[in-house]
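Hey all, quick one. A colleague (J.T.) asked me to put the iron/sulfur cluster job into the tracker so the inputs and the structure tokens live in one place instead of scattered across chat threads. No bug as far as I know, just bookkeeping. Sequence used:
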Amino acid sequence: MKKFHMIIDLEKCVGCFNCMLACKDEHVGNKWLPYTEEQQKHEDKWICPTMIERGEAPYTEVTYVTRLCQHCDNAPCAKKYPDVFVKRSDGVMLIDYRKAKNKDLVDACPYGMVSWNDELGCAQKCTGCSHLIDDGWKEPRCVQTCPLRALQTVYCEDHEWEKIVEKQGLKPITDGSNKPRVMYKNLYYYNKCFVKGALCFDQNGIEEAAIDAKVELLVGGICVAQTQSDFLGEFYIDRIPKNSGKMQIRATYGDFEPLVADFEIKTKSVVLDALKFGGGTGKPAVILPNEHANEQALTHMIPKDAEAARKAFAHKK
Ligand code: SF4
Ligand code: SF4
Ligand code: SF4
């Protein structure tokens, strides 16, 4: 049987809140029984983007993480209240509106996805817009309204979904034990760290950008990822697991002596002070036309001789 699944892509979401407004438009002032009572005008947000900031001045990145009920297959809410939280055959979790007048139901979801409707005195949450889907709609209102297609519903067999999850690298926002039907793409914007820095050298008293310098990320002296500085001399390595500990950036450029910078990844991304090449013969690298490398392609290119470190690093990821 084709079942409900949802993909939320952090790379596409811009935090426009259209999804939340569409949900309100569909459910405020509209009673869709037996699916759900109407949503209250204020407070309740069955779907909501939250802003996440990574980095620090002068370089920060903003991402929006949109959350809604994950329609878990191993749902803590249903374990606690099996007669109230009811799974449909298409995988959508509903609250039985006739048994929802209990404020304790709000705490049954450890992910904060059940809200309390003060006006009607009942617990509520996302219904997957089942009233529309049962009426022939192809997707819920929030998905239909998202201007960037950051939300996508996939109605397919569960074994087909497993292949999609693997192919697209989808991740749960939880530890996965709840078996969510809502999965995230590019979740590293939310749960991984980056290191960012800039490289320069002195030329006749003027600081010039060190373009196309080789930049390596070292763990225990072994390279686990590498990239090149861009036309501003800046470099950026992402998807570093939180709490990776002490690391180094080693930068090499032309005939200058290599630069090494120590830093530590705890729970936040790191923006290094500008690094200036000085020692050696002082000759900058020769940059040929079209030689500038694709940073994306090079990021995480891992040398074969660092296989052990690569495995350890990949395991942590
Ligand atoms: S409508 Fe789409 S882009 Fe806008 S906040 Fe919601 S998920 Fe993000
Ligand atoms: S996200 Fe919360 S409310 Fe939704 S199914 Fe999972 S445990 Fe239940
Ligand atoms: S699927 Fe429907 S009920 Fe759920 S958040 Fe989207 S619009 Fe709201």
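Adding what we noticed when we looked at it: The chain has two domains: 3-186, 193-316. The first strand starts at residue 3 and ends at 9.
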